[in-house]
Design a protein that fits this description.
The chain has 488 residues and is α/β, with parallel strands linked by helices. The chain folds into 3 domains: 2-107 and 223-259, Periplasmic binding protein-like II (D-Maltodextrin-Binding Protein, domain 2), CATH 3.40.190.10; 110-221, Periplasmic binding protein-like II (D-Maltodextrin-Binding Protein, domain 2), CATH 3.40.190; 271-487, MetI-like fold, CATH 1.10.3720. The protein has helices at residues 2-21, 51-63, 74-82, 97-100, 130-139, 151-157, 178-186, 197-206, 232-245, 249-259, 271-308, 315-333, 336-347, 355-381, 384-392, 397-427, 439-450, 453-487, and strands at residues 28-33, 36-37, 41-44, 47-49, 66-71, 88-94, 104-105, 110-119, 143-147, 171-175, 192-196, 210-212, 219-227. The strands form 2 sheets. Strands 1, 5, 6, 7, 8, 9, 10, 11, 12 and 13 form a 10-stranded mixed β-sheet that branches. A 3-stranded antiparallel β-sheet has the order 2-3-4. The longest helix has 38 residues, at 271-308. It is elongated, with a radius of gyration of 27 Å.
């Protein structure tokens, strides 16, 4: 009965925590973006800026609304709108009939073109005719890169709703962002990249060895702001603002500021310091998510182990055993990325607090399934005679388990628990997909600012490796200390 009360109290605590986090909303708009699409949205130091961002801040200023910009992957930005995680998304988004089924779009605020970037000196660089360029790409069975979920992808693969026939006999290779695609092109892994003209100018200047095919525009499109289908009041307000803004001097100033030259506007003061602070913040969040998830995992793991070991034949004992087995099967049988997305976008669909909280819970639940099996193995490693001896003395099952079996089991489990902690640190690298800022996202931000992906990602790998080595050494020392205690 005590276990049942503890379990119910823990679930009630989680429910109250997330319910309170959703209350007391002020007049604020949560704006989802993908800050890897300069000059529309990008990081300048630790601040997200760009044409789109400044425009939406102008909207907030005009309507006395606080704007909270959240960076996430492009796909996640679109999902966040349809699932009410964000009030709107602005990230160089083009409206089409498929997207209009799950989200609403404002009037257009910017006209863009799709262009082709190729290797400097390649056979494609001198072509000035669209038809001839597409024929050459098809003839050579080219591998063409693009950002996932963008117009470039649909143009390469073909899409009836976008009215694109596709580029025959070519292979589409998708990347998380445009700069990664252009870097792959520079490294010789692609034959071409299709992307919007404004960022293409910046990427071709910042990344050596590539250039835009001059005078060739594949297609034109209109950028709009995406929001939830049911938010008609916000849609009307944004449309009124866009009508006024695009005819104002402020709009002309932004156009001139971000598209008047091929140079990206960035504040270079304290740039290295900002990068260090960004990495430290990401590292802190990574450890925070890992520590909390690990503690939750131990709690869930112990509860599940107790539930599976209940000797009672009451209905709640069978119920708890069934729930525990299903819990372990589900969380061990599905990828952590899938679990994170389901928990964030489905189970806690209406949660609007910091995504880090959801990340902690998701990884805690995932860890709990593995910890429960680790503890079960630890319990099985303790001689059955100790349980029998305790019961023969008249001690209840729960007392023997708590006072005799578990202390020894936990000690036997320490090496495996240490490995679980290390696994959690590495697995948390996917939390950026729901907008949580971690160590991986910090390095991605730096890479997108410097366009030096090779060095930045190598350093990121070294940092993760150093963390794991340090933790491994600490755990080894702890294990030796425990082994020494046993021999005394």
């Amino acid at each position: 009965m005590k276990i049942k009360k503890i379990l119910l109290a823990f679930l009630l605590l989680i429910f109250i925590t997330f319910s309170l986090s959703s209350c007391g909303k002020s007049k604020k708009l949560t704006v989802a973006t993908n800050a890897e699409f300069a000059p529309f949205e990008y990081y300048d130091g630790n601040t997200i800026t760009g044409f789109d961002i400044e425009m939406i801040y102008e909207y907030g200023k005009a309507n006395n609304i606080e704007i909270d910009v959240v960076n996430m992957d492009f796909d996640a930005a679109l999902i966040s709108v349809s699932t009410l995680k964000a009030d709107l998304a602005i990230a160089g988004i083009t409206a089409n009939e498929t997207r209009k089924k799950t989200m609403a779009f404002t009037k257009s605020y910017y006209s863009a073109d799709q262009v082709v970037i190729v290797k400097s000196g390649s056979i494609y660089e001198t072509l000035t005719n669209q038809e001839k360029l597409l024929q050459e790409l098809s003839k050579n069975k080219a591998t063409i890169g693009c950002q996932r979920g963008t117009t470039g992808q649909y143009y390469i693969e073909g899409d009836a709703e976008w009215e694109f026939d596709g580029i025959k006999d070519t292979t589409c290779k998708m990347f998380d962002n445009g700069p990664l695609a252009v870097q792959a092109l520079a490294d010789g892994k692609l034959d071409a990249v299709i992307i919007d003209s404004a960022p293409a100018k910046l990427y071709s200047k910042s990344i050596s060895g590539v250039s835009i095919v001059n005078d060739v525009v594949l297609t034109s499109e209109e950028y709009a702001i995406a929001l939830n289908l049911d938010n008609t009041e916000l849609l009307e307000s944004l449309n009124e603002f866009i009508d006024d803004f695009i005819n104002s001097s402020s709009y002309d100033s932004l156009i001139n500021k971000y598209f008047g030259s091929d140079e990206l506007i960035q504040n270079t003061d304290n740039k290295n310091l900002n990068n260090v602070l960004s990495v430290l913040k990401g590292l802190g969040n990574t450890f925070l998510i890992t520590f909390v998830a690990f503690i939750l995992g131990i709690v869930f793991g112990i509860l599940v182990s107790f539930a599976n070991g209940l000797q009672s034949k009451s209905w709640y004992a069978y119920f708890l055993k069934g729930i525990s087995k299903a819990y372990v099967a589900i969380f061990r049988g599905t990828p952590i990325m899938v679990q994170l997305l389901i928990i964030y976008y489905v189970i806690f669909r209406f949660f609007t607090g910091d995504a880090i909280w959801i990340a902690m819970l998701a990884f805690g639940l995932n860890s709990g399934a593995y910890v429960s099996e680790i503890i079960r193995g630890g319990i099985n490693s303790v001689s059955n005679g100790q349980m029998e001896a305790g019961r023969s003395l008249g001690l209840p099952y729960k007392v023997v388990m708590k006072k005799v079996i578990l202390p020894q089991a936990i000690k036997n489990c320490l090496p495996s628990l240490g490995n679980e902690f290390i696994s959690l640190i590495k697995e948390t690298s996917v939390v950026g997909f729901i907008g949580a800022f971690d160590l991986t996202l910090a390095f991605r931000k730096i890479a997108n600012q410097t366009y030096n992906y090779t060095a930045t990602y190598l350093i990121m790998g070294v940092v993760y490796f150093a963390i794991v080595i340090i933790i491994t050494l600490v755990l080894s020392k702890l294990e030796r200390g425990l082994a020494h205690d046993r021999t005394k």
